[in-house]
Design goal:
mainly alpha; binds heme C; about 140 residues; single chain; Four Helix Bundle (Hemerythrin (Met), subunit A)
C-alpha cells in the first residue's frame, strides 16, 4: 500500500473513535476504549504531520510517539479481563487466542520502537509500519462495522 493511503486509512480509524464510545456501560470496556481513543488521537497527530496538514514539530511528534508506546504497554492489562458490553467491538479471539493477541501487541510495540520521527519524511515512512500494526490487530481481534 502507498504510504499516503495508509495514513489516510489511519486517520479514518482515528475519526471513528468518538462515535463507537457512546452508551458503553461496562467500566473495563470503557477503559480499554479510552486507551484506544488515546492511541487514535496520537496517531492522528502524527498522520497529520506526515501529510503536512499541521506543521512538523519534533517535540510534539516525540510526545505522540511516547503516548502511543505507553498506551501499547497498557494493552495487556486493559484486555486481560474478559469484559463484555453490547457496544464492544472486541472479538472473543482476544481471549481464545491470547498468544496471537500478545503477538499483535508486540508487533505494535516493535513498530513504535523502530519509528523515526526526526523529520517529516522519516515520520511518513514510520507511519506505514504503525498503521499496519493497528490494522493487523483490528483485522484479527476487532469487529469492524
Ligand atoms: C493488539 C491489538 C490492537 C492494537 C495493536 C490496536 N488496537 Fe485498536 N482496538 C483493538 C480492539 C480489540 C478494539 C475493540 C475494543 C472494544 O470495543 O472492546 C480496538 C478499538 C479501537 C478503536 C475504537 C475505540 C472505541 O471508542 O470504541 C480505535 C479508535 C482504535 N482501536 C484505534 C487504534 C489505533 C489508531 C491503533 C494503532 C496506533 C490501534 N487501535 C492498535 C485492538 C488493537
Amino acid at each position: 500500500m502507498r504510504p499516503t493511503l495508509t495514513i489516510a486509512a489511519t486517520l479514518a480509524i482515528a475519526a471513528t473513535a468518538a462515535l463507537a464510545h457512546t452508551g458503553v456501560k461496562d467500566p473495563q470496556v470503557m477503559a480499554r476504549m479510552d486507551g484506544m481513543k488515546l492511541m487514535a488521537d496520537h496517531t492522528k497527530t502524527l498522520g497529520q504531520m506526515a501529510r503536512g496538514r499541521i506543521a512538523f514539530d519534533n517535540t510534539k511528534a516525540l510526545a505522540a510517539l511516547e503516548g502511543l508506546k505507553s498506551e501499547t504497554d497498557r494493552i495487556p492489562a486493559l484486555f486481560a479481563p474478559r469484559a463484555a458490553d453490547p457496544k464492544s467491538e472486541a472479538k472473543s479471539e482476544i481471549w481464545t487466542d491470547s498468544a496471537g493477541f500478545k503477538a499483535s501487541t508486540a508487533q505494535m510495540a516493535n513498530a513504535l520502537n523502530l519509528a523515526d520521527v526526526a523529520s517529516p519524511e522519516a515520520l511518513a515512512g514510520s507511519m506505514r509500519a504503525i498503521a499496519a500494526a493497528c490494522s493487523a490487530c483490528h483485522k484479527d481481534y476487532r469487529i469492524e462495522n
